Records
---
Amino acid sequence: MKTATGTTVISNGQLFDGSGKPPVPSATLVLTDGRITYAGPAAGAPAVPPDAQRIDARGGTILPGLVEAHYHATYFNIARLEDLDIKYPVEYVSLLAAVNTALALECGYTAARSGGCLFNCDVWLKTAIEADLVRGPRLAASGREICSAGGLMDWNPGFRKIGMEGLVFCINGVEDARKAVRSLVKDGVEWVKTYPTGDAAWPDQNDHHTLCMTFEEMHAVVATAHNHKLKVTGHCRATEGIKNALRAGYDTVEHATFIDDEGLELLLKRDVPVVPGLRFEQVSVERGPQFGLSQKVIDGHQETLDGGAESCRRIIKAGGRLGMGGDYGFGWCPHGEYAKELSFFVNFVGLDPLTVLKCATKTGAEIMGRGDEFGTLTKGKLGDVLVVEGDVCKDISRLEDRQNILAVLQGGVLKAGRLAPRTIIEVPLAA
Ligand SMILES: [Zn+2]
């Protein structure tokens, strides 16, 4: 991804640097050749060349670009779960995914860690984003997800004889686990997404207290992935599944819904970040009836919502790290609502806005393993910046409305928001 050349000055706003500290009032941010060279009070800002590009924050907030830490670019706002695997071919899914990444950028998300994808779209989406052909967040790519046969993701009935080729490797035992990871290594992914536990979505055989992989399978995934420098995460609701993931050496845990004291201790010992993706549960309860979810499924989502909120409060209180990611791409939880996860964590879970903003910036970058490149407005880091009209630190819901977004910059290049120019991208000669 190209970085800007020359100088850009963003001023006339408060500056939240991503660390969780209160914002600096009347601040200025200076970017030189796409990197941050000054972030602090306007009074102390260095002199800049007369031809510097200037962005007026209009009394609003200057903050690091947001990081979506559980992103599914290829989930296309499905009306029902089985659509994910069988509705569209890879050609159309790829196009829809490119639309989703552009939307995420418009919403202020300059980076995203994938939580799994259809086919091998993420790797090529990332290639196109890095080549500036498709607009979108800097992407950490996942691939097809791994789940044991008969587990949560193995939902196509046998009589259809179609498997789950688009979305999942259905494994039986450690040899299959290694084989699946090796296939993902060849595909070029960075993250391996697994399903250690079930979910409220499948209340009879694979509910949120059911295990969907053995410890041995999970350990085989981690050993193989780490050997090839890939990272591992997993959908963990059930108490034992969370502990299995932590003992197996997972790099992050998704959800960590029903974590107990022992699980929390294991989590803190290795400082493993959790991405709760919890607002999904709230909207599943609220919008479930309209999408035909049964009462049993909705009741399970309610239990998950309450248990998950308590776990998040405990993790933050104990000094653990949360990333903000919302599992968007379902009809009842569509792309574009990304920042609603942040408001939810303030209003429903009860965290303070500065903590939530830190989770959505600094911690997100750390989860991607790129905390030294972006995630805070610190001298030397990339100019991945968001400028929002209004006081985001007091009213985090300002982030939900794209009308409030003035500017979204990646590497100092103004790419989205009300102040951005409309750009036309052309496909270059194939190298
Ligand atoms: Zn997900």
Note: The longest strand covers residues 53-64.
---
Amino acid sequence: MVMYLVVALLAGVVLGFGLRRGGRAFRTFRGMRVLTCPENRKPAAVELGAWHVALTAILGRPVAQVRDCSRWPERRHCDQACVREILGAPKAALVQTILASWCHYNACVCCGAPLATMHVGPHQPHLINREFRIFEWKEVPPQDLPQTLRSCEPVCETCLVSETHTW
Ligand SMILES: [Zn+2]
């Protein structure tokens, strides 16, 4: 009886460690990323199969592979060389990281208020382009986001509300 309890306890510990590794792998590798495609050296929006990474991490060695890419389906059978770059710096190319960095280093073009405290979530960053059109970053295809952020200015929530009420 004691033997069964020890085996069950050990199995529970091993399973617990595996699930923890899987959960950590899922949180690390989920989300859309924008990086330079190693093949054509142009921006591409890439999403890894986070569930696949998590399940393989539970079973042993995590295996990462591309689930979707803005260059697909034309380049569906590429060698997925971008995966190595993602494994080397999992957070760097995340859309959330790119937006957070943009907010951190910019101020509202209307009132000058810093955007460092703006959260990517309920209060979405807004952009204004050279034609004075205001739009949300979600309207931009992810692979175009870095270029769009370079050519636009941010507008804070307060200015956006006051501007849209006077137009
Ligand atoms: Zn403002």
Note: The chain has two domains: 2-88, 95-166.
